[in-house]
């Protein structure tokens, strides 16, 4: 398939990119979603503004308080970063699962969040990690908390003339990610991201997010509430305390209140049924420090 014709622009800096965007068109970053859409003729933007090589938007700045990740930083760079793995393990674990090595070498953090694919790996991880997205547009700069960024399938709070510039994530003590791989696409049919801090050997400030089973990633408030205050030792294998098991069983109910997501490969109800098992695995991965796990056939 050939894409429709388009004018191609490669701005030299962010302000030029914003000026170009004001004239219409779409941002091109890693191209791992947009080029597919163009070739499938699902979109015809007429103009592509390629920010993929803007050095000011690339790079990782990791410290003990947290991590700043430039929008055009690739998944592979996140996975390879010791600072990302240590300070925000949930994000490293999610990035590690994206696509295949080619996709991880080209696809970018900003592109993944802007794409807001219901089966994308970074949206639930960003939500669980309490990320803040920095954005530049014709009216200046603003920040969007991950809690407010995702609005539905491929829909975000970004305006069409805005550019994601970077992502800022506070450090967490423990983070885990788990997903059920989609047998046809390799995307996450169901995913769960878990982040918490530890105080006095008990869980403090848990954030638990689910993806794949919903049009946009959501926080699982019931699970979060039940985990908080639990001694870490009670989550370290040999089954969870009964009240946490019950909260996991009810995770699907929290999806029902939102926008359940399914496709011809896996219905919304099937994904809902799978969710508790993957939330459980994500919690276990956070506790044992392995960060991640994947179920299903690998491709
Ligand atoms: C074979 C294959 C397998 C894949 N598997 C997975 C997977 O398992 N998990 C997963 O999460 N993803 C997967 N993907 C998608 C991949 O992660 C894409 O990289 C991602 O969805 C988009 O990032 P990108 O940098 O490639 O963005 P692009 O494709 O360049 O852009 C995607 C969208 O985001 C917008 N955009 C890009 N950058 C910005 C920015 N800085 N500011 C504002 N808007 C911006 C574009 O205008 C476009 O609408 C897969 C892709 C392929 C081809």
Folded structure, characterized:
Keywords: FAD, Flavoprotein, Oxidoreductase. This is FAD binding domain-containing protein. There is one protein chain. Among the domains are: 7-50, Uridine Diphospho-n-acetylenolpyruvylglucosamine Reductase, domain 2; 174-294, CO dehydrogenase flavoprotein, C-terminal domain (Enolase-like, domain 1). By secondary structure, it is of the alpha+beta class. A hairpin with a 2-residue loop joins strand 8 and strand 9 (155-156). The longest helix is centred in the C-terminal third of the chain and has 21 residues, at 268-288. The two termini are 24 Å apart. A 5-stranded antiparallel beta sheet has the order 4-5-10-6-7. 48% of the residues are buried. The chain is built from 13 helices and 15 strands. Helix 5 (89-97) runs antiparallel to helix 8 (122-128) and helix 10 (221-227) runs antiparallel to helix 11 (242-249). 34% of the residues lie in helices and 26% in strands. Bound molecules: flavin-adenine dinucleotide. Flavin-adenine dinucleotide is lined by residues 26-34, 36, 51, 71, 98-99, 103, 107-108, 110-112, 114-115, 117, 120-122, 158, 163-164, 186-187.
Short key terms for the protein model shown above:
about 300 residues, Enolase-like, domain 1, binds flavin-adenine dinucleotide, about 25% strand, single chain, alpha+beta, 13 helices, Uridine Diphospho-n-acetylenolpyruvylglucosamine Reductase, domain 2
Using only CA atoms, what is the Rg? 19 Å
Number of helices: 13
Beta-strand residue percentage: 25-35%
> What distance lies between the first and last C-alpha atoms, to the nearest angstrom?
24 Å
């Amino acid at each position: 398939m050939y894409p429709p014709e388009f004018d191609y622009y490669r701005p030299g800096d962010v302000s030029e990119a914003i000026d170009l965007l004001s004239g219409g068109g779409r941002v091109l970053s890693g191209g791992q979603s947009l080029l597919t859409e163009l070739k499938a003729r699902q979109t015809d933007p007429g103009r592509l503004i390629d920010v993929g090589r803007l050095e000011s938007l690339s790079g990782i700045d990791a410290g003990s308080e947290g991590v700043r990740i430039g929008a055009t930083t690739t998944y592979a760079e996140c996975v390879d970063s010791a600072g990302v793995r240590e300070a925000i393990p949930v994000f490293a674990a999610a990035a590690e699962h994206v696509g295949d090595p080619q996709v991880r070498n080209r696809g970018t953090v900003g592109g993944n969040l802007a794409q807001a694919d219901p089966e994308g790996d970074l949206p639930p991880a960003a939500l669980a990690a309490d990320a803040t997205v920095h954005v530049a547009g014709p009216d200046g700069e603003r920040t969007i908390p991950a809690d407010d960024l995702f609005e539905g399938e491929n829909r975000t709070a970004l305006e069409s003339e805005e550019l994601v510039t970077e992502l800022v994530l506070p450090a967490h003590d423990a983070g885990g990610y788990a997903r059920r791989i989609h047998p046809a696409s390799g995307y996450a049919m169901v995913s769960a991201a878990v982040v918490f801090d530890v105080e006095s050997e008990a869980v403090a400030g848990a954030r638990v997010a689910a993806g794949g089973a919903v049009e946009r990633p959501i926080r699982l408030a019931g699970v979060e509430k039940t985990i908080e205050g639990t001694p870490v030792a009670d989550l370290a294998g040999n089954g969870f305390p009964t009240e946490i098991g019950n909260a996991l069983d009810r995770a699907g109910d929290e999806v029902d209140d939102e926008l359940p997501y399914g496709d011809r490969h896996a219905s919304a109800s099937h994904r809902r049924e799978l969710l508790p098992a993957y939330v459980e695995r994500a919690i276990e991965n956070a506790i044992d420090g392995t960060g991640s796990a994947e179920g299903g056939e690998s491709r």
